[in-house]
């Protein structure tokens, strides 16, 4: 009812504004032709008076009368045309008046057939939910986050949002989303594998101990999925066991279908691992035993000291490719990516030929790009 009342008032106001000028009388003064007739009649009277007083002769007076009479006839004809034009103008105003009145009458008659005045308004949130294909990625994420803020127990919502976070390199958000889905509905291949990938993203490419445990679970949940095997092989490469990584991938490849789309990639990885030099050795048993007996802070300090001593030794003897591998891997384990890149750069500058390529391939397995270290 409020809509119709508002529409009626607006229509009446608009119609009134248009009609008022059409009702005004535009004949506020006499036409020019009527004024001319009055002037000509005055001139004729003056000629008669001048002739009576003898100021002009009879011939001149007659000629003046004829000229004035001719002008009067012309003015009367023009006045007739003006009257006709006035009638036409009045007719035009009448048609305009009728047209202005017809517009609202037609509109009010047609709108109820096609319009929907009672349809409720749709706010922005409802529009986003009604047509998600029109939204940008940020709008979709905002919509999903708003939904999950109100429905935190919607495991399906977390399943949808987690891989989006992961593709956008938002590792921490992806990990939280995967953990929420696992808490609500338990583990499956997609959730366990996704959580492991999120942890690798957070660590800057390093497969942490927790991520390795998740990839082992994923390998059990999806024995035919190559992704967990790749991550587990990367973990073995980080630990300096390239031969074990090659054996793992080869064993998986032996039982894989011949037309598997990832077969060529696995074969290439195995070939690069098999052609590498001997894997670098980790800490000695004595080092491990000594570290285990220390507290967390002392153990961290001990590891830092070992890495610093190795770094100092390589500055004096830079031809040790295995030493450079251990240094780069140690810095990655300590989550010091910048230091690992610096060590890689110095190692590539010190080594040549196959040893340089070997260090470069080893660093690539840790998620370090040699190009960023040499530029």
UniProtKB/TrEMBL annotation:
Matching Pfam families: TPR_CcmH_CycH (PF23914)
Transmembrane segments: 94-114
Record InterPro entries: C-type_cytochrome_biogenesis, Cyt_c_biogenesis_CcmI, TPR_CcmH_CycH
Record localization: Cell envelope
GO BP of this protein: cytochrome complex assembly
GO cellular component: cell envelope; plasma membrane
Keywords, in A-Z order: Cytochrome c-type biogenesis, Membrane, Repeat, TPR repeat, Transmembrane, Transmembrane helix
Cytochrome c-type biogenesis protein H TPR domain mapped to chain residues: 145-261
Protein name: C-type cytochrome biogenesis protein CcmI
